[in-house]
UniProtKB/TrEMBL annotation:
The keyword Transcription belongs to this UniProt entry's keyword annotation: yes
Name of this protein: TetR/AcrR family transcriptional regulator C-terminal domain-containing protein
Domain HTH tetR-type: 24-84
UniProt keyword Transcription, yes or no: yes
Gene3D superfamilies: Homeodomain-like (1.10.10.60), Tetracycline Repressor, domain 2 (1.10.357.10)
Transmembrane segments: none
Length: 244
């Protein structure tokens, strides 16, 4: 991640674009400004001082709308997660979950610096204290699956398994973008071929596949395994098997 930098006038530009409500600072303006700072420079670059400079208000004004920096981080995660739509009326539950997975990946690619918040904020904030927008995808996925005939417990299990996979997938896919953007496919292949063939024969043999990673295709391969496995393992209330 990039190191925090001295606030620049550019930090205030998104505020003008987002607009103020009759010149008033609102929670929405604060959070959207924080999101733009994180998108540009990373989570470590965000501070309450820099945020107050960006919205051109004293820090005390911010605290009238957000309790602390943790509340800002939760709010930024809420902004992104609130964009994750779920069609709860879709009769093809597996197809809808696949679509949700691809929407989540698209959001991650659009806001790569926010992904760590999407993964870690649920660990830092108790379920009952999280912003409502972060809980909407959970509610909607449960509604989709229960409407499809799953029990509430099974629906919750599916949600947990799905998002555990999605978090791992996007973190893996984005690792090179955020941490090592200079490692091109050629550099990766060269590095793998420098490994000892005795100690790492499989990695050397798979060097072309590792270097030609396709995030969308890899996501679908994992979803095939996940959704087929869930359909095989979970049954309907009458004991009959499900099919994805």
């Amino acid at each position: 991640m990039m190191e925090p930098r001295t606030p620049l006038a550019a930090d205030a530009e998104p505020l003008t674009a987002a607009g103020r409500d009759n010149g008033q600072i609102t929670r929405s303006v604060i959070l959207h400004t924080a999101l733009r700072i994180i998108d540009r420079d990373g989570v470590n670059a965000l501070s309450m001082r820099r945020l107050s400079d960006a919205v051109e208000r004293d820090t005390t004004v911010l605290y009238r709308h957000v309790a602390n920096k943790s509340a800002v981080l939760d709010g930024v995660a809420e902004i992104v997660m609130s964009q994750l739509s779920v069609d709860t009326a879709d009769r093809d539950w597996a197809g809808q979950l696949r679509a949700v997975a691809h929407r989540f990946r698209a959001l991650a690619l659009e806001h790569p610096n926010v992904v760590p918040l999407l993964v870690t904020r649920p660990l830092a904030t108790p379920l009952g204290q999280r912003p409502p927008g972060t809980l909407r995808p959970l509610e909607d996925v449960l509604t989709l699956l229960i409407s499809a005939g799953f029990t509430g417990d099974d629906a919750l299990h599916i949600y947990r398994v799905l998002f555990a996979y999605l978090h791992g997938h996007v973190l893996d896919e984005l690792q090179e973008i955020i941490e090592r953007p200079e490692e091109t496919d050629h550099v990766l292949q060269l590095g793998l071929h420098r490994l000892s063939i005795t100690d790492f024969p499989r990695l050397r043999a798979l060097a072309p596949a590792l270097a030609s990673y396709d995030g969308a295709a890899e996501l679908d391969r994992g979803l095939d395994l996940l959704l087929n496995g869930l359909a095989a393992a979970l049954t309907r209330p009458d004991g009959s098997p499900r099919t994805p």
